[in-house]
Amino acid sequence: MLWLIGWSGGRGLNPKKPMRIVIAGGGTGGHVSPAVAVYEELIKREPVNVLWIGSANGSERAAAERAGIPFASIQTGKLRRYIDLKTIPDMVRLPIGYVQARWKLRSFKPDVVFSTGGYVSVPTVAAARNRTPVVMHEQTATIGLANKINARSASLVCISFASAESVARALHPNVVVTGNPVRSGLRDGDAAAARAAFGFPADLPVVYITGGALGASPINERVFPKLAELLRVACVIHQTGSKDANADFVKAIALRDALDPELKERYAPREFVTAELPGIFALVSLVVGRAGAGTVAELAHVGKPSILIPLPHAGGAEQERNANILASAGGAVVIPEASLTPERLLQEIVQLLKRPEQLAAMAAGARSVATDNAAAALATLVLRHGR
Predict the structure, then answer these.
(1) Do the domain assignments include residue 185?
(2) Looking at 67-71, 82-86, 212-216, 241-245, which range is the least confident one?
(3) Which DSSP state fits 121?
(4) What's the average model confidence in pLDDT over 51-64?
(5) Are residues 87 and 109 in the same domain?
(6) Which pLDDT value is given to residue 237?
(7) pLDDT at 37
(8) Counting C-beta atoms within 10 Å of the first and last residue's C-beta, which end of the chain has fewer, N or C?
(9) Helix/strand/coil (H, E, C) string of 151-207?
(10) Half-sphere exposure (CA, 13 Å, Cβ side) for 310?
């Protein structure tokens, strides 16, 4: 009996001890940022002991380190809906990861597991089944494959959009619509300070082009040929993705160095954006990017107009649904990647920058779909299930 108490909760018979919480999730920024946002909310409420379990080389490890969260790595394997030779070794890693996760849970003795999905969450959520309460969260407008599997082990399924509720209820009887949490402080940027930090001239609008945490080469490849033309009418902050993800940052630096001096000062390529993001959002007139759940939630939260190019093929339907939530509210222009040429992208950006009234209306449309208390709602549910 005492072993069961210890397994199901680290506080055992002493409720005054800090709650012990495991975070499971990662693989992309869309799964990582909500976990950080909820962690920030949790530590405002009460003392907690938190362990993040994820993959050794995923973006979740770096995010945990930046947030000061202890991290434990396990073997993980990507879940695919399409044929790929990498599926075979990945399927071998999953049971290994399950055993590793089970031992880490037994050692840490969490009161509750909070999962933000992604394939890296599956072994930990499966290992917690029938032993530790699991609160899982789906960020997108549909239910991803990993979370369809995780729902079998969950105590509660939380979703970001009411449009996904019927699908979620087919998977689990306990469903709550919470919205998608975003990092704190995104609205606290100083536009003037950001403009000065980037060294941009005062009389030009600023466009932020981003492919998410890993970058998006298909978008970058449409930007590069028309970069000089774009810089004649706007300054550009360009998040290309890290050098480990693609070669686009090196290309961007080479293009910048070849520009005329007047245009050169208007272009700021970055591998990855972290602390600068609140200032960027305060400064920019328009955002161009993918339609991942995190991107869409942040655009709604800060009320920024956007041009969205959903990821095609695998994951494409998911991003299309995300993008359409903003587009339906008038907050975004959506362009399928197959229809996107360098010429069209340039034209769409320039036309919007010439129409400040339309940009203002799009900003209001984006704000209309924001859920500002999502992190607080999820933190409350995590604490409730850990009691």
Answers:
(1) no
(2) 82-86
(3) G
(4) 92
(5) yes
(6) 98
(7) 95
(8) N
(9) CCCCCEEEECCHHHHHHHHHHCCCEEECCCCCCCCCCCCCHHHHHHHHCCCCCCCEE
(10) 23
